[in-house]
Amino acid sequence: MAALALETVMLAVCVLAPAARALDNGLALTPAMGWLHWERFMCNTDCNAEPDNCISENLYMQMADAMAKDGWKEAGYEYVCIDDCWPSASRDAQGRLQADPKRFPGGMKKLADYVHSRGLKLGIYADVGTKTCAGYPGSFGYYDLDAKTFADWGVDLLKFDGCNMPKWTLLAEGYINMSKALNNTGRSIFYSCEWPLYEWQYTQPNYTAIRQYCNHWRNYADVYDAWTSVTGILDWTAEHQDLIVPAAGPGGWNDPDMLVLGNFGLSLDQQMTQMALWAIMAAPLLMSNDLRNIDPKSKALLQNRDVIAINQDPLGKQGRRTAKVNNFEVWERPLSGGKLAVAIINRQEIGGPRFFPITLAMLPSWKFCNPECNVTQILPSYQEMGIQKLLSTTNVQVNPTGTALLVVTPSTLDPRLHEKWLYFHRDNKANSIL
Ligand SMILES: *[C@@H]1O[C@H](CO)[C@@H](O)[C@H](O)[C@H]1NC(C)=O
Ligand SMILES: *[C@@H]1O[C@H](CO)[C@@H](O)[C@H](O)[C@H]1NC(C)=O
Ligand SMILES: *[C@@H]1O[C@H](CO)[C@@H](O)[C@H](O)[C@H]1NC(C)=O
Ligand SMILES: *[C@@H]1O[C@H](CO)[C@@H](O)[C@H](O)[C@H]1NC(C)=O
User: Fold this and answer.
1) Mean pLDDT, to the nearest integer, of 374-383?
2) Domain residues for 165?
3) Can you tell me which residues the record assigns to a coiled coil (predicted)?
4) 65 is catalytic
């Protein structure tokens, strides 16, 4: 009896222990939400030819306007983020970075004020090496000065790229030094790193250290506007989930890169898959699209409150792939209140809609639906499926390359079962059925 009690206590301690120490700047308690220019607008600096689509202060002011007036802010999107190609080709006489004077005539301070006046936050971009990826001045040797410059401008987020580091062995030091430099400014600045992405070419990154210094971090290749890009990111994430999922939690998150919904390359089903899986992965929701002109279906999906609630769930645990069956993939994410989010992707790219039979008893974590669960389908459409018993079978229909997203709520929450279930998710026992 005493031994059993002790075991229960230890289990509880394991479950409650936080992933690892997170960067302590008060930010990223849930994944960041906002907009980032890169995937859609890239390095378009030709404002004569394309005044509305070039990297200029107008672009961010117009996106901020759209975010404030079209429901984005209310849905939780708050950061308006600049990527590469904003700076002038040279630093100023004091060695400070400066915005390109033609494209940012008002300067960055004024742009930050504008974005703040809309109730939003401004993100900026720099690089840990000698030059940015597009060849603009890098921050190597200037970390303290650049952090201070960004703080003086009123910047709220820094995306720190990893190109052109003189030696890859300096990457960790460079990212850590910039983290400390941001802290020293006294301004809370969200720190978005690409440290593991650049280290992976040489070595397995130390995620304990990364979590200690960054609010989110890119692991894998840039997203682009295509289904193969989304599946490539999902496959990489599933293959590395034992390593990267435990690193995520309040304060710091894995970043599978931007949401490309609302552009040209993904069908509506594929857009649902990206949205659903970014929620399961507790990913930052940084859209890269044109909010001034976006398809109403993409907009509705990006603003879907039930999907966003899964993404922002306060328990702060990243989900993982728990099964591959008959060209379906099942991904699960534990939520607060003993709930579970389940995504079922139809990875078959031929034929029509297929039925996936849900037997609550079939998948390991669903066993905690004992004796029954209340099942609600969130995507492709909201549908209350009602009480499901452990051994009853319901079918969900999933289009090719689409996803059904469900929320499963145990009807009675047995706290001991719930602890075991969280423990199961922590240690990924589900791998045994893959
Ligand atoms: C700087 O770091 C300290 C210690 O981790 C923390 O308490 C403080 O809030 C941080 N300040 C900022 C501005 O991030
Ligand atoms: C990081 O900061 C330390 C201490 O100031 C310094 O010795 C080191 O050279 C810096 N590394 C890089 C890559 O800037
Ligand atoms: C990883 O980083 C942590 C925290 O900085 C450190 O304590 C640990 O020794 C590092 N692990 C390895 C294998 O270098
Ligand atoms: C099941 O969940 C839905 C959605 O939260 C709710 O509206 C419904 O009342 C629940 N049904 C039962 C029987 O608890």
Assistant:
1) 96
2) 33-311
3) none
4) no
* Token duo for residue 214: 């960054």
Task: Please tell me the total count of domains within the chain.
Answer: 2
- Whether 255 is catalytic is no
Task: Show the ligand 3 pocket: residues with CB < 6 angstroms.
Answer: 206, 208-209, 212
Residue 26 counted as domain residue: no
259 and 297: one domain? yes
Per the domain annotation, does 27 fall within a domain? no
Nearest CA to ligand 2 atom 5: 177
pLDDT at residue 429 greater than cutoff 90: no
Is 65 found in the same domain as 214? yes
User: Residues 182-201: what's their mean pLDDT?
Assistant: 98
CB-count burial class (<10 Å; 0-12, 13-18, 19+) for 9: exposed
Indicate which residue of 127, 161, 269, 313 is catalytic: 161
Q: Which of 111-125, 338-352, 417-431 has the lowest mean pLDDT?
A: 417-431
- Bridge partners of 76, per DSSP, are none
Q: Which atom of ligand 4 is nearest to the CA of 374?
A: 1
Pocket test for ligand 3, best of 171, 176, 203, 208 (most atoms within 8 A of CB): 208
Q: Give 16 or 176, the one with higher predicted confidence.
A: 176
pLDDT digits (tens, 9 = 90+) for 399-414: 999 999 999 998 776 6
Give residue 358's pLDDT.
Answer: 81
Considering only CA atoms, which of 313, 327, 323 is closest in space to residue 281? 313
Domain boundary among 311, 327, 347: 311
By alpha-carbon position, which residue is closest to atom 13 of ligand 3?
206
| Strand pairing class (320-325; 285-287) | unpaired
Contact 387 CB / ligand 4 (< 6 Å)? yes
Predicted local distance difference test score (pLDDT) of residue 101: 98
| Cα separation, 138 vs 215, whole angstroms | 21
Residue 176 in any domain: the answer is yes
- CA 210 – ligand 3 centroid, Å: 10
198: domain CATH number? 3.20.20.70
pLDDT at residue 8, rounded to an integer: 35
Distance, CA 174 to ligand 2 centroid (Å)? 7
